[in-house]
UniProtKB/TrEMBL annotation:
Keywords: Oxidoreductase. It comes from Muricoccus vinaceus. Pfam families: DAO. The keyword Mitochondrion does not apply. GO terms for molecular function: oxidoreductase activity. The keyword Oxidoreductase applies. This is NAD(P)/FAD-dependent oxidoreductase.
Length: 444
């Protein structure tokens, strides 16, 4: 047991890739011209390509890595509607106004319904289940914020959010660390790597060309309209251009990069411990989160035999073995019954935050974008990708309310989040002041 908490055969790659690894980039023949060129082969880009294809427009999707290699196939696979909107801030109404926030919340709730219909319509094999979501309050002051969020969600007319008092937390999770919580009925789980693989198949079925291993180097607008996009495989002319690179946005699109804060999020998978023991820890088999600044998110595996646990194990670029030990410590502090359980997988992926902590869709100098999912991207990016396609097609009955949000940046910020370690320390201090404590040393 000297290598505890690592199980024999431990690997530093996503658990999800065991069932659905990203495809190796193939020598796809790239066209010289495209009606629509989409940069980024994740959920947003592929969803855009699907909606375009359904309307007779064939897209070209490129990605510098394999299609689906990024956070789209690495995330926790938890999803909800408006319950995740602006979850890291408590001043939504004060900042954006009651009527506009109500519009955003309504769209967020509808996006979840549309997502479920989309999965059924396209017959996407992704282990989707509507299971609900429990958010644990880490401190008494967080309870009031959760109650306000419940009112905001239910104000959209769904009545799908419920307060969970402390004495009933054990019905949701085997811990005494939470002082109450919120249960969202409109929430679910899927297998993210299977989902992005199914999206890729659907996009190709609708005529899209997918090309992994192709990096964008830059672009320029042509006088007569359209763009010339420089890639690692040569120039491509495109009538329309979309950037959907999110947490992996690079220097080729500096305007977008200056508006995104890439943050590494880390995950582990426990060894298979059987459904009975998983249910003992997570009785309702939902997806889970909490209200801390250094948040946790976790869930059962799709087959119900493991627990998948994620969080901000580090605010610097940590190796995944060390982050795996840290996350194991977080998990067993939260659910002590799992103290003897080892981990088989540890991995990380970049999510992207906006400075206003809101998702963004729109157009800048003719270039479309859908990005800044702020850690809740499955439903959000599916919805905003579809909205982007509808905007290109000019046929949206009701343009997305998110398109009216300004996309802020900060003076002198270039896309390198040098301030994250300082932010991380302040978040840890805030959690400690709220009364949250975890063991400081990794298990050994």
């Amino acid at each position: 047991m000297t290598d505890f908490p690592f199980a024999p055969g431990f690997v530093e790659r996503p658990y999800w890739w065991e069932a659905a690894p990203p495809p190796a980039p193939a020598a796809t023949l790239l066209p010289d011209e495209a009606e629509v060129l989409i940069v980024g082969g994740g959920i947003a880009g592929l969803s855009t390509a699907i909606e375009l294809g359904r309307n007779g427009v064939r897209a070209l999707v490129i990605d510098r890595e394999a299609i689906g290699w990024g956070a789209s196939s690495r995330n926790g696979g938890a999803l909800s509607g408006a319950g995740s909107l602006g979850k890291t801030r408590s001043d939504l109404v004060e900042s954006f106004g009651k009527e506009y926030v109500a519009e955003l919340m309504e769209e967020g709730e509808q996006a979840f319904e549309d997502f479920e219909a989309f999965v059924e319509r396209e017959r996407l094999d992704c282990d989707y289940v509507r299971c609900g979501r429990f958010v644990g309050a880490h401190a008494p002051r967080a309870l009031e914020a959760l109650k306000r969020r419940i009112d905001l969600i239910n104000g959209a007319g769904t009545e799908e959010a419920f307060f969970v008092p402390r004495e009933r937390v054990a019905e949701e999770i085997a811990t005494d660390r939470f002082v109450g919580g919120m249960m969202l009925r409109r929430a679910g789980a899927l297998h993210p790597a299977k989902y992005v693989r199914a999206l890729a198949s659907a996009a190709m079925r609708y005529g899209a060309t997918l090309a992994g291993g192709v990096a964008m180097r830059g672009h320029r607008r042509e006088a007569g309209g359209g763009f010339v996009v420089e890639t690692s495989r040569g120039p491509i002319r495109a009538r329309r251009l979309m950037i959907a690179t999110n947490g992996y946005t690079g220097g080729a699109t500096p305007w977008h990069r200056r508006r995104l804060i890439p943050v590494a999020s880390y995950m582990i998978a426990t060894e298979a411990i059987g459904e009975e023991r998983v249910r003992r820890a997570l009785p309702q088999m939902r997806v889970y989160g909490d209200t801390k600044k250094v948040l946790y998110y976790f869930r059962p595996s799709p087959d119900g035999t493991r627990i998948l646990f994620g969080g901000r194990a580090s605010f610097v670029n940590a190796d995944t073995r060390r982050s795996g030990a840290t996350l194991h410590r977080f998990l067993t502090d939260l659910i002590p019954d799992l103290a003897d359980v080892r981990i088989t997988h540890s991995w990380k992926g970049n999510v992207a935050f906006a400075f206003d902590m809101m998702p963004h869709v729109g157009e800048h100098e003719g270039v479309h974008h859908a990005m800044a999912c702020n850690g809740s991207g499955v439903v959000t990016m599916t919805h905003l990708g579809t909205a982007t396609a509808q905007a290109m097609l000019g046929g949206a009955n009701r343009p997305s309310a998110f398109a009216r949000l300004p996309f802020p940046t900060r003076p002198l910020y270039t896309g390198h989040p040098w301030f994250l370690p300082v932010v991380g320390l302040s978040y840890q201090l805030r959690d400690r002041l709220d009364g949250w404590r975890v063991p400081r040393k990794d298990a050994s």
